[in-house]
Structure formats: C-alpha cells, structure tokens
C-alpha cells in the first residue's frame, strides 16, 4: 500500500517545523510566518502530493465538509440527472463533497444508507425523490435535513417541489392564446394518482374557467405513462364527433405526448396544422427530437437541486414551516407543436 504523504514529510522537504506547516496549510499563519516561507510550504506540499486528512480535520472542527444525498431512483433516471449535477455543483461551490446513495425506494436500504452516512459524520442530508410526492420522512433522518422534489407528510423539514399547477397553467394558456377552445387533458392512469396529476388538472381547469370555456368531461382521458398509453388515450378523444373533437392536447408528460403524435398521424392529422400538442417534463431525447419539436413545460430539476444544497449549507435562507414547500417555477419551452385551430388557419397556409 502506498504510504500517505503527511505534514512531517512536507516539513522535512521545506526545512520547517511540522507546526509551521500546519499553521500555513490551515490558513492560521497570520503575520507570524514570513510570506516567503508560506509560499515555500505550499509549493512543497503541492510538489510531493500532500492532501489533508479530512477525517482528522473533521474530528477537530466537527465538520467533514461532506453532504449525504439519499435518493430513491434519481441516479437511474435520465431526465433527473441535472438535479444531481446541480446539487454537486452547489456543494462544490460551498466547499463540500456530495455522497450519493441511490436506494431504489427500498426502505431498509434507505435506513442503512442514512446510518452509514451518519457514521461518516456528514454535515447534513438532502433527501430526494424522483417525482413530486408526499413522503413519510424516515425517522432516522436528522433534523435540519432538506427534502428535494418531495413534501413531508409530517415534520418541520424545508422542502422544494416543482410548481406543477403553475406549469399546467402556462401550458394550457399557450393553447388558449393560440385560439383553441376544445382542449383535452391526456392524464396519467395510475392508482393512486401522483400529486402532479391532480395539480396539473387543477391548472388546466383554472385556465378554462378564466377563458370562459366549459370543461367537457369527455376531454379528460387517462393512459399509461408511456408512448403506447399516450397513443391509446389520445385516440379516444380524436375519435369523438367533429363538434366535440379537440383541436389541442395537453399531455401529462412528454412520453404521452410522443404517443399522441402517433395517434394524430394514424388519424391523418398533422401537427400543428390539424392538432396542437403540449407536453410536460422537457425530457431529453424526446421533446426536442420529435417532428415537429414539442412545446413542453420544463421540470426545474437543476434549480431544485441547487436550492436544496444551498439551503442545507446556509448559503440561502431556510424557509419557515408556515411557508410550506417552496414551489419552483416550471417554465414553458416553446417549440413548433402549437398553432391556431384548423378553422382559424388561412386556406393553403401552414404554420412555419
């Protein structure tokens, strides 16, 4: 095993005492040690490969400059990778290293992960979920931990979640502004339904009410959360009589929207000439790659990941329990899948 380079090695090579090296490398030398000596100590330390013993330093300072990031399935989810990247960047910017544990949603593994990270004396925890949901916080999760993409059923834990209702309002308003009055919501079919489903439905209904549009129950359909489910569910509304058939679809996610594209083409419809579509998630390798590229709502994974770490480390104000979870805005990403309804298009002209 390679021997670890220590303070005594630096002292011997620099021709100073170990105490001098410790003072210099811990930035406690002040004016007592000449600048030329400080420069020599740092140069020698770099040349011979000295690295501080963070565990020993943690025992002295009661800080290890590390964060425990416990998640369910985020590390295996392509569209949530930005959450981890942003959390790592925020940790690094504040002088910390992030330890990631992906539990796969296994409660026993979750408890073991928290216990192991506590034994390593991490400075704090971020408890993250793959999708917006209410969670029973593990009883062993320390006070002061921050919840990411989740809200606690009980307990005073700062939390950040996407503003799913606000994102739906932006999506449906885009369709209303384009002139659509028959707008279907292609929802997800899961039992129990995820929080996002109800919140996006509430946003959909809010815009219809504000626009004076009476909701048609036949235009709220549900399907599996994939392209096949989206195609089947979208087909149901596209087969309605002409006077009830939607001219626009608001889809729960981009995978469902991808299926809606297939359904439209199966029915001889072009997007957005005959049918406008808006998705949700801005999922990589789907939204921007569809033909035409999909207008969608982006989940603020990076912004939420950064917020959680900054709140944990005190770089951002910690919200009070009365404020509840912080709602992170979900921006609308405009592409080419939205146009005016067919009856309002000029003959022989298509939207570029």
Describe the fold and architecture.
Residues 5-61 form the HTH lacI-type domain. Residues 332-352 are annotated as: Disordered. It comes from Cellulomonas carbonis T26. InterPro entries: HTH_LacI, LacI/GalR-like_sensor, Lambda_DNA-bd_dom_sf, Peripla_BP_I. Pfam families: LacI, Peripla_BP_3. By secondary structure, the protein is of the alpha/beta class. The chain has three domains: 7-52, 434 Repressor (Amino-terminal Domain); 66-157 and 302-328, Rossmann fold (3-Layer(aba) Sandwich); 165-295 and 334-344, Rossmann fold. The chain is 37% helix and 16% strand. It is built from eleven helices and twelve strands. The protein has helices at residues 7-14, 18-25, 35-48, 54-61, 81-93, 107-119, 164-177, 195-210, 227-238, 254-266, 301-312, and strands at residues 66-71, 97-102, 125-135, 146-152, 159-162, 183-188, 220-223, 248-251, 276-278, 296-297, 326-328, 332-333. Strands 2-1-3-4-5-11 form a six-stranded parallel sheet, with helices on both faces. A four-stranded parallel sheet has the order 7-6-8-9, sandwiched between helices. It has a two-stranded antiparallel ribbon with strand order 10-12. Helix 10 links the parallel strand 8 and strand 9 (276-278). Helix 1 (7-14) crosses helix 2, helix 7 (164-177) packs parallel to helix 8 (195-210) and helix 9 packs across helix 10. The longest helix has 16 residues, at 195-210. The protein is elongated and about 90 Å long. The termini are far apart. Residues 346-352 have low confidence and may be disordered.
């Amino acid at each position: 095993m390679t021997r670890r380079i220590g303070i005594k090695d630096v002292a011997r090579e620099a021709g100073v005492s170990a105490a001098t090296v410790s003072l210099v490398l811990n930035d406690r030398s002040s004016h007592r040690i000449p600048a030329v000596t400080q420069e020599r100590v740092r140069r020698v330390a770099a040349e011979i490969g000295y690295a501080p013993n963070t565990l020993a330093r943690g025992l002295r300072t009661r800080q290890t400059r590390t964060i425990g990031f416990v998640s369910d399935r985020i590390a295996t989810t392509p569209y949530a990778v930005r959450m981890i990247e942003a959390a790592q960047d925020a940790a690094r910017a504040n002088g910390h290293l992030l330890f990631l544990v992906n539990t796969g949603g296994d409660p026993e593994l979750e408890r073991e992960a928290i216990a192991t990270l506590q034994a390593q004396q991490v400075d704090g925890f971020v408890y993250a979920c793959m999708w917006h949901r209410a969670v029973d916080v593990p009883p062993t999760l320390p006070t002061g931990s921050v919840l990411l993409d989740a809200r606690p059923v009980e307990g005073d834990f700062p939390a950040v979640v996407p503003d799913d209702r606000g994102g739906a309002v932006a999506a449906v308003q885009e369709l209303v502004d384009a002139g659509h009055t028959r707008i279907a919501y292609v929802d997800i079919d899961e039992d129990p339904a995820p929080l996002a489903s109800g919140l996006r439905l509430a946003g959909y209904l809010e815009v219809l009410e504000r626009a004076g549009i009476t909701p048609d129950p036949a235009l709220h359909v549900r399907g599996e959360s994939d392209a096949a489910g989206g195609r089947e569910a979208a087909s149901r509304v596209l087969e309605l009589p002409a006077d009830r058939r939607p001219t626009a679809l608001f889809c729960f996610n981009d995978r469902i929207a991808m299926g809606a594209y297939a359904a439209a083409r199966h029915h001889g419809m072009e997007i957005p000439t005959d049918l406008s579509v808006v998705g949700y998630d801005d999922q990589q390798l789907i939204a921007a790659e569809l033909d035409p590229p999909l207008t969608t709502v982006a989940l603020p994974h990076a912004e939420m990941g950064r917020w959680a770490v900054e709140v944990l480390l005190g770089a951002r104000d910690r919200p009070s329990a009365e404020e509840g979870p912080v709602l992170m805005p979900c921006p609308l990403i405009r592409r080419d899948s939205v146009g005016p309804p067919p009856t309002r298009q000029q003959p022989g002209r298509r939207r570029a």
